[in-house]
Amino acid sequence: MPISTRAFTVSGCLAVLMVLGLQTSSAAPKPAAVFSGKDVLMRPDGYRQWVFVGSSLGISYARDPEAGSTRPMLFHNVYIDPQAYGEFLKTKRFPEGTAMAMELTTSETKKEPGLQGTQQNEFAGLEVSVKDRTRFDGGWGYFLFTGPAGTLRDRAKAQAPETCWACHHEHAVTDHVFTQFYPVLRAVATSAPSTRDRQAERP
Ligand code: HEC
Fold first, then answer.
1. What are the CA-CA distances from residue 5 to residues 2, 12, 14, 16, 18 (Å)?
2. How far is the CA of 26 from the centre of ligand 1 (A)?
3. Spatial distance between the Cα atoms of 200 and 98, rounded to a whole number of angstroms
4. CA-CA distance, 105 to 91, in Å (whole number)?
5. CA 185, CA 53: separation in Å to the nearest integer?
6. 46 C-alpha vs ligand 1 centroid, how far in Å?
7. Please, what is the average pLDDT of the chain?
8. CA–CA gap between residue 156 and residue 127 (Å, rounded)
9. Which of 55, 102, 140, 185 to mutate to test the pocket of ligand 1 (most atoms within 8 A of CB)?
10. pLDDT tops 70 at residue 151
11. Positive or negative, the Cα torsion across 191, 142, 36, 50?
């Protein structure tokens, strides 16, 4: 075989290998929400690397504003999985499979000479929501991973609709998500359909 042909064959093989390699690396990314059976969610890995959409302190829809006011307020830090964020940027809708994580931390307020303000302190819990119409009648499932004494559970079963979904259905502005409190999403969502415009009814 003349050298030039051999060189061609070798480079041809390399090209095929590179294409195969590209195909492998462009295979569908792992979904953010991994279920065991129909409605048990595994605690998502690496949610602190998701897109951080906002943080709030003491937001509540409790009818009695004094309820729970003796306890220190918790920070709520909210993240969305990066694939869903990318879709939301393009379509202004949360795609099927969207996962959102809300990590809770305790707060501590300093009023000392030379140091004032409120900071986040210890991790105190984790709540997750997942959009999946094939699993949840109202479109979204809600999961509580907070365990006893600051621990987190490895898996969580979907909560009953009246425990979580109902409040999100009533008060959240964009498809059961509280975009009104997340400037990062609100900036995208201003023209997205609101929860009330949607067909989803109480299951
Ligand atoms: C009485 C109203 C209410 C109930 C009940 C409720 N939530 Fe929420 N949830 C909120 C509000 C308000 C926010 C906005 C963020 C915040 O709290 O700072 C929120 C935000 C979230 C988020 C962040 C994504 C989003 O949808 O905005 C998750 C995840 C979440 N809640 C999970 C749960 C889970 C799990 C339960 C049930 C165990 C639950 N929620 C019950 C009011 C509620």
1. 5, 10, 14, 16, 20
2. 34
3. 17
4. 32
5. 7
6. 20
7. 86
8. 10
9. 102
10. yes
11. positive
Collect all residues with Cβ–Cβ distance below 8 Å to 94 and sequence separation of at least 6: 84, 87, 88, 131, 174, 175, 177
| Two structure tokens written together for 98 | 């969207």
* Lookup result for tokens 């998500």: 177
For residue 135, which of 28, 41, 43, 32 has the smallest C-alpha distance?
A: 41
For the cut 70, the answer to whether the pLDDT of residue 1 exceeds it is no
Q: What is the mean pLDDT of residues 183-190?
A: 86
CA of 170, closest atom in ligand 1: 2
Q: Are 118 and 105 in contact (CB under 8 A)?
A: no
CA distance 94 to 88: 6
**What is the model's pLDDT at position 78?**
98
Please choose, from the candidates 174, 177, 165, the residue with its C-alpha nearest in 3D space to the C-alpha of residue 201: 165
Q: Tens digits of per-residue pLDDT, 60-76?
A: 888 777 766 777 899 99
